[in-house]
Amino acid sequence: MLRTTTVEKRLPEATPVALSSWKPFSTTHSERHPVLKAAHTLFNLVPCNRELEVAVSTFLDRAGDVVAFAKNAGPQCLRIDYLASGARLAFYTPDFFARTKQGHYYLIETKGREDKDVPRKARAAMAWCEAASTPSCRWEYIYVPQGVFERLTGETVAELGRTCQPALKALIEDEDTSAQMPLFAAAAQAEIAAQEKAPELKGIIDEATLQSLPPRYRKSVEQAIMLFRFLENKEGLNFSPIFNALLGCLDEAARGLLVRRLQPHMPPTVPDQKAWFDPYLRDVDRRMQSHYQNMAQNLKKTLVFTNGIMPLGLLRSCMEYALNDNTKIEGVFQAVKTKFKVAGGREFLATVTRIYDFRNTRVAHQEKEITDPKEAEQNLIGWIKGLKALTEASA
Questions:
Q1: For residue 34, what is the domain's CATH number?
Q2: Are residues 281 and 294 in contact, defined by beta-carbon separation less than 8 angstroms?
């Protein structure tokens, strides 16, 4: 019986196209799919799909040897064909491109080992890099496992490539071993999955606190902590992206608390509601009239239409009025005074204020970057505890 081995080599089929010539495309920022601003991206924004992509984007933007990088996304993205399991033709989309000061180019993949086709994708990407390279333009493929990136202490993409090289080699060799010894493939996959599990939450939050949160909030907390673990050993990186996963949860919890406490006091008819949200303010200090008017209108949007602006800030304003403002106003303000002037209110207000101020000055509007891991960890713990407090107050 003869065995025939066919070796195919990937060759370039078209003239290379510069990434800078790609047409603009739209992307949407969300809690699950954040969009980052970066100084060294070829485009104005970097769309991300996972925590590891956010971490690597931040790293590439600060890497000392990177001149430019870009997310491989949009209608013109690079899609590499490969043979998937079952000899099916499939396409693989790597995550990032990067160019260094030395003129080297990198194709970077941050995806963990989530399916059995990952080694085939890696082989295809390596073949693409070989075909795309010329004497004056060298391409290299970097496969970035989560655990390896967490331990990275280097500050250049070249160091990232050298650190990740053993993982790529092991990925390819594991596929060869599994092909030769299929009986042991399942055990090997289980061992790899155990090695690449998400970072532990120990040191940030206890299991009881985590389990006390609703499932959606719990997932966001895990994402925030995971991203912190990615970045905590990297020098000079900005930790502000770790808080993005919690922004939506905090606003949602604040909105829920406002609705739960105030909506039962809202008049049932539209005419009465109009008067309730537009109380008499002529006897109020003129310098404060616009503040109260804006606050009342935002409460109306929140309680009637559930689309109020910045719920966490609105909650802080309500608590400030209830606890520290002696101005007597009827309507919705009377309900605010009744429902938020409660025992333990000042401590709760201090928690909300710390989160709100840090959000406005260090996360949403970065007056100063968060580069100290201890400061980032301290505030992350405070945000998680604050989210727990908001959740419990809404119950």
A1: 3.40.1350
A2: no
Give the Å distances, CA to CA, from 14 to 11, 134, 138, 344: 9, 14, 17, 69
CB-facing half-sphere around the CA of 144: CA atoms within 13 A:
29
Whether residues 218 and 77 fall in one domain:
no
Q: Is residue 7 one of the residues assigned to a domain?
A: no
Whether 344 is covered by a domain: the verdict is: yes
Q: Which residues contact 381 (CB under 8 A, 6 or more apart)?
A: 204, 205
Partners of residue 96 on adjacent β-strands: 71, 108
Total domains, the chain? 2
CA dihedral sign of residues 16, 21, 25, 27: positive
pLDDT, tens only, 74-96: 889 999 999 888 778 899 999 99
Q: Contact, 138 vs 106, CB < 8 A? A: no
Maximum distance among all Cα pairs of the chain, rounded to whole angstroms: 101
Residue with tokens 């050993």: 233
- Is the C-alpha dihedral spanning 166, 168, 171, 174 positive or negative? negative
* Gap between the Cα atoms of 80 and 125, Å rounded: 7
First to last CA, the chain: 73
Nearest CA among 251, 226, 369, 353 for reference residue 308: 251
Long-range contacts from 150-153, C-beta under 8 angstroms, 24+ separation: 150/199, 150/229, 150/230, 150/233, 151/233, 152/233, 152/234, 153/233, 153/234, 153/235
Residue 235: which domain range? 207-394
Query: Of 304, 12, 259, 263, which is closest to residue 133 (Cα–Cα)?
Result: 12
| 30-76 confidence digits (pLDDT tens) | 777 888 989 999 888 999 988 889 999 999 999 999 999 999 998 89
| 6 in a structural domain | no
Interhelix angle for 215-231 vs 51-62, to 10°? 30
From 38, 35, 103, 105, select the one nearest 73 (Cα to Cα): 35
